[in-house]
Amino acid sequence: MTVVPYKEKAAGKKEQVAEMFDNISHRYDFLNHFLSLGIDIRWRKKAIKQLKNDQPKQILDIATGTGDFAIEALALNPDKVIGVDISAGMLEIGKKKMKKKGLEDRIELQMGDSEKLLFDDNKFDAVIVSFGVRNFEHLKKGLSDMYRVLKPGGKTVIVEFSRPTGFPMKQLYYFYFKYILPIIGKIISKDQAAYTYLPESVEAFPDGQRFLDILESVGFKNTVCKPLTFGISSIYIGQK
User: Fold this and answer.
1) Crossing angle for the helix pair 181-189 and 28-35, to the nearest 10 degrees
2) Which of 30, 46, 162, 224 has the most C-beta neighbours closer than 10 Å?
């Protein structure tokens, strides 16, 4: 079953996800850091370090949102980072952020659909995604297009929520995600569905080895899963 933010609406997941992020874009950065107690910043830094030895020069950041992962990727000293997202609202916030930080010449943000990337085959040295793949309407289709635009030997690095399995983190995690997070998210973002959708989408996502199997099914090799913070999130790596 496909998990969507607005169950009463007939629109597909892609359209609903875009609408949801448009609705919460004005509070997204604050909520991200607040609800994760700032740990999401460390997760992104650790993910980018997985590419340190590869020294990618052309990087594509999918589901870039307001561009935080794209900014983190500048630590690799690439020639260019392109961030794509389906939410105009998120991109508007991101572009203002790049202008304020003076990064417009190094990071380019544009509208883009993960399943229909408007780039040539074998273009990027690395494709990165931070908390975006579980929002894909068709997961394998999106991953296949990521594989297509990667250069041979290039890598994808994906950060995504996963589900802890050990006591007591598993119990604490489920309580926080199901009862605390939706309430805080609703109060601050004014969108009740967005932070109900978050735990539902995490629950439905095929994490761990199941996700590595999907990566391999679309062509990626040398796949690795690195759990973060007791398994709350994971870094996934695959090579073309």
Assistant:
1) 160
2) 162
Strand 107-111 and strand 124-130: the pairing is unpaired
DSSP tag of 226 = E
CA–CA dist 157, 48 (Å, integer): 8
Q: Which residue has the tokens 């590419």?
A: 51
Q: CB–CB of 83/149 below 8 Å?
A: no
Tell me the mean pLDDT in the region 132-157. 97
**pLDDT tens-place string over residues 41-74:** 999 999 999 999 999 999 999 999 999 999 999 9
pTM exceeds 0.90: yes
Strand partners, 221: 239
Helices and strands (H, E) in the chain, number of each type: 10, 7
As a whole number of angstroms, the distance between CA 215 and CA 195 comes to 27
Whether 221 has a pLDDT exceeding 90, the answer reads yes
